[in-house]
Amino acid sequence: xxxxxxxxxxxxxxxxxxxxxxxxxxxxxxxxxxxxxxxxxxxxxxxxxxxxxxxxxxxxxxxxxxxxxxxxxxxxxxxxxxxxxxxxxxxxxxxxxxxxxxxxxxxxxxxxxxxxxxxxxxxxxxxxxxxxxxxxxxxxxxxxxxxxxxxxxxxxxxxxxxxxxxxxxxxxxxxxxxxxxxxxxxxxxxxxxxxxxxxxxxxxxxxxxxxxxxxxxxxxxxxxxxxxxxxxxxxxxxxxxxxxxxxxxxxxxxxxxxxxxxxxxxxxxxxxxxxxxxxxxxxxxxxxxxxxxxxxxxxxxxxxxxxxxxxxxxxxxxxxxxxxxxxxxxxxxxxxxxxxxxxxxxxxxxxxxxxxxxxxxxxxxxxxxxxxxxxxxxxxxxxxxxxxxxxxxxxxxx
Length: 398
Prior knowledge:
Helix content: under 10%
Mean pLDDT: 86
């Protein structure tokens, strides 16, 4: 197996912070305007925490909400279900076994949860940094099954039909039986670049097909029933003078709107693709390592300089750009009503108007970085920082 050197841009920011941002290739974050006057009222409904969150793992842990329950995990072995309206913990489990008295779950020894949980019905599936996938009862957190894979799981699994489908860091995709965890099929990308950004975008399941972005700049479609490849489409050419210049990972989620898929790659393009055929519809230069969001006729994205952009989804034309948060290492955007929501490296959450990109509000969840794309469910947005703090916010006009 090839040895991989995985890097994260967030680590470059941390390193630069030790040198007052004097490194030539790292820019200081744009200061937040002190005279900012919000045009939107934001109410924080609650705040809680789940373990130590992603910690220094580089994982982008994102909770999920199903039937009014928020599920979250952490790399120090915590798994929890929380009432999404009140923030009250419904159940919490720890996989730790080496506490003072050996307390913990003996069947999941120190599980380093990292993929973010997926929930369907009463099944919760979650992956780990050491290449395991666990099936858990979503009602109480009791264990059901365990599967061992060949590499770390940094993306959330997807549960579709009777399958739990998982990506691993070595370029493979596995389908596991949702009842037992037994392996049903595996797709092997063949090879992955020696150098790549740390992380994987989640799988997208739709109409019997699984879509994902690869570490070598491709959008790939697989048959759900057997894992055979239907088509692939380039989002980035991977060209450049140095290996850093040739990084072309697709680390954000693939977005589906009607029959059209949208994806973007680092050092690549924002591309619209016909879902059934894989035929490209349009392409626009846009380098990003985050996920996209769509609302109405607009697609929203954050580029590799943390500028927030809006594009016309029918042709890719620029609609607006906001660079007030440049180099603040923003998350991928989410859409909450008429606003785009992003988190930043200092724990702030920002709301921008979807119509023109103007900043409308900001709140601070914590003093730690927010790396995972905010999650909007109904009229509430949920945001998690790297230390496992989760906040829930609702909007109301001034």
